[in-house]
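Pilot study result, target chain (281 residues):
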Amino acid sequence: MKEKPAVQTMSENQPETSIPRKLLREPMTHFTALALLLFGIYGASSLGGGELLEVSRQDIDTRIFMRELSAGRELTEQERDQVTSLYIEEQILVREARRLELDNDARIHDMLAQKMRHVLSGEVIQPDNAELRGYYDANRERYTSLETVTVDELVFDTADELAPEVTAMLAADEEPGAMLALEEGTVSPLPRVNILDLSNIFSDEFAEEVFAAAMDEWVGPHIGNRGQHWMRVREREEAQLPQFDQIIDRVRLDWIATEEDRLLQAEVDRLWEDYVIVIND
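Predicted structure:
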């Protein structure tokens, strides 16, 4: 009968030969393992005619760091490995997309151009109060609110000609209750609307007619889906320019946006000088 191989046992006095768990937690161990993995991949791809894909340990660590910031805790080893795998998959997919020329797409070009615009305009500094005050003074019309009116909207449920009694009441600027007793319809207020609001709801001509009307004067009709609309102005609020201190945050955002556009256009103009543009028919 063939003898069984001897089984070696470890005595209590023998030193432990397994790798300590502490060593497994060391970042250098992970880096070495990844390097060996990449070296093995390179060797295998060289034998099989494959293509080498190099990845950056720093980029992977950045991804891990961002995930830890988002999670608010340190990632487990399994989660770190998952982040690494996803990053490598992403690099593979990007390379394959370029191989298939999928990056030659108008939508991809738009996203890349937009990102490049942010990069080129990223050197905007914060303005001081003097610059903000100057921007505010130079753009007063931008911050001046439009004139607004509060109106009564009287809607008759018909687009046909109204009864003579109702027409006479409208001409006399009487209250809507008496007219609604003779003609079916509704009345409701429209508070603090500007001329753009009325233009969007009705028409430019009707909006201009309402704003040009005297107080408590019925204006109309505007024929719509609900019937015919009549309006009278009850209150007016003149256009107002807010004080600088009241809208300083808005002015700051507008200043930064304007400065970003200026710097961006300057950088784009500079880049144009680096190219010879040829348009082929």
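One observation from the pilot: The chain has a mean pLDDT of 81. A full batch analysis is planned for the follow-on phase.
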